[in-house]
TrEMBL record:
Segments traversing the membrane: none
Keywords: Methyltransferase, S-adenosyl-L-methionine, Transferase
Species name: Alteraurantiacibacter lauratis
Domain HTH arsR-type: 42-79
Higher taxonomy: Bacteria, Pseudomonadati, Pseudomonadota, Alphaproteobacteria, Sphingomonadales
Protein name: Methyltransferase
């Protein structure tokens, strides 16, 4: 298709259908892994908290919480007053003693044994599948690159292309948010290809944008800036957000899909670093697919969270969890809105 033809297409920021397609690969393996560890049988016997259920099954409670959210979103578990139980569907069709137990069928029809194995291991251990799995799964190997604080130019190119695809629509959605017009300079921290900073700059011609990432990724983002013809407004900075001083000129810090890569403790550290570097009145933004407050879904957030479990040190957070993290650093006025960019929401808070 020619560029002219592509540009003539309506500029929709909605790519939810594509997300539904790729996240659907998690559905059957989640059911099979939970049948295997005994989740349905245990939740058919008695309602239990996530922690009690984890102890009963001998699995990791944090990982189990992510599975329960996905099972709830699929109609197989429900949460009432903090207690989880199997729904009538799961009691009838997924209890191993039930007449017409679907477990045998689902197990045999599931061809995605790779994902099944990764989900099972991480559910049992609470950690990413081991080194052997990391070498043969593309998206598993990639985050390990940035955790070392450095990467090859080739790895940066691959990660940027991967991220660019899944971030183009949500970047268009984020860019329409009026709050960015109130800022002078926005720093896109952990920018990847820079797609968010580029689109937000395009929508706000007086806004200066700094794309910040590890040196190799910042160099890669520079090529996206040049291709977009946005060099007059958008610059890049190679900075390790954990070990180096942050540039100080920005009155807004934007993180997309960055907090979800890290533990609660590391997110608190990032929030503190942002707070220190912002002026009074400055804003922090977290662009993420949010879990609901109860940890009961929705499915895209729960499945994406499981991808984080097997590939990173993080998970998808709820607004309640982000509020706690941001307030612990000193931020106030924590709010969130769906941007219209796919499933993403923009969390925003202010440094008093
Ligand atoms: C999941 S990607 C998100 C990219 C982009 N924000 C997006 O949503 O498309 C996480 C980004 O964080 C960056 N990152 C990881 N560790 C970093 C560090 N120590 N300093 C700066 N950036 C880092 C990675 O290089 C990567 O580009």
């Amino acid at each position: 298709m020619s560029a002219a033809h592509t540009n003539a297409l309506p500029p929709t920021p909605d790519d939810c259908a594509i997300w539904d397609i790729w996240l659907s690969q998690f559905r059957l393996p989640i059911v099979n892994v939970n049948a295997q560890v005994g989740t349905f049988a245990a939740l058919a016997e008695a309602p239990r908290t996530c922690e009690d259920l984890a102890a009963h099954l001998g699995v990791d409670a944090r990982a189990l919480a992510m599975h329960l959210a996905a099972l709830c979103a699929m109609g197989l578990a429900e949460k009432r007053l903090g207690m989880w139980r199997a729904t009538h569907l799961a009691r009838r069709w997924l209890h191993p003693d039930g007449e017409g137990y679907w477990g045998y069928f689902c197990r045999q029809i599931d061809r995605n044994t790779h994902l099944q194995g990764q989900l099972l291991e991480s559910l049992k251990t609470g950690r990413r599948p081991g080194e052997a799995a990391q070498s043969d799964g593309e998206f598993v190997a990639r985050p390990a690159e940035w955790e070392r604080g450095t990467m090859s130019a080739e790895a940066a190119r691959g990660i940027a292309a991967f991220m660019h695809a899944h971030s183009q629509a949500p970047a268009l959605g984020a860019a329409t948010q009026p709050v960015f017009s109130t800022l002078k300079c926005l720093m896109d921290v952990g920018c990847g290809s820079g797609v968010y900073g580029i689109e937000i700059a395009r929508a706000n011609p007086t806004l200066k944008v700094v794309l910040m990432d590890l040196a190799e990724m910042a160099a890669e983002a520079q090529s996206y800036v040049e291709r977009a013809g946005m060099g007059a407004q958008v610059t890049t900075a190679g900075v390790n957000m954990f070990t180096q001083e942050w540039p100080r000129e920005a009155d807004g810090h934007f993180f997309s899909n960055v907090f979800h890569d890290w533990s609660d403790e590391t997110c608190r550290l990032l929030a503190r670093k942002s707070f220190e570097a912002l002026p009074s009145g400055g804003r922090i933004f977290l662009n993420e697919i949010l879990m609901d407050d109860e940890g009961t879904g929705p499915f895209p957030a729960a499945a994406f969270s499981l991808l984080m479990l097997i590939g990173t040190l993080g998970k998808q957070y709820s607004l309640a969890e982000f509020r706690d993290i941001l307030e612990s650093a000193g931020f106030t006025q924590v709010t969130a809105e769906r941007t219209g960019g796919g499933y993403f929401s923009l969390v925003s808070a202010v440094k008093p």
